[in-house]
Amino acid sequence: MSVIRKFITSALILFALIFSLVFSVGSSAYAATACRPPLAPVIPDGATAPKEDILAALKTIKNDFQPAIVNFQNCIATEKTAIGDVATEQQISEWDQLFDYAYALETQVADQMNKAIRAYKARTAKETAE
């Protein structure tokens, strides 16, 4: 296959991808994107949970949730780049909202985990003092 034929084939495939993404916009934020946010992990109650549960939640956040958030944000950025200048204002707004949602979700999970850790430490300090 000649270089020109490969270039034309690649350009047609890229055009088809962009065309399908541009015209797949619906009314919800997820309609414009193939990217899906991860589910937030379950955070144990630090006032009652054993140390093992706290450590398991930390491991899940570090090894599963945070990389999934990064992958989700990268997916959004990749779609924005692929569509480029032909993206509608609605698409751009939806991508920005999803990106902000990912950041807010990550912050919420971190806050919940920190509260659980503080509660666990306060409980175990009280138990040790008794």
Count of DSSP E strands?
Answer: 0
Percent helix, as a range, is: over 70%
Question: How many distinct helices?
Answer: 3
Low-confidence stretches: 3-31
What is the straight-line distance between the termini?
A: 80 Å
Shape label: elongated
Structural class by SSE content: mainly alpha
Overall pLDDT confidence: 81
Q: What proportion strand? A: under 5%
Report the C-alpha radius of gyration, rounded.
Answer: 22 Å
Largest sheet: none
How many domains? The number is 1
The sequence of SSEs as H and E is HHH
Based on the model shown, name its key terms.
mainly alpha; 3 helices; 72% helix
Q: Can you walk through the features of this model?
A:
This protein has 130 residues and is an all-alpha fold. It has one domain (3-129). Helices cover 72% and strands 0% of the residues. The longest helix is centred in the last third of the chain and has 41 residues, at 89-129. Mean pLDDT is 81; it is low at 3-31.
Q: Could you provide a short overview of the structure?
A:
With 130 residues, this protein is mainly α. It has helices at 3-22, 51-83, 89-129.
What order do the helices and strands come in, and which of them pair?
Blueprint: H1 3-22, H2 51-83, H3 89-129
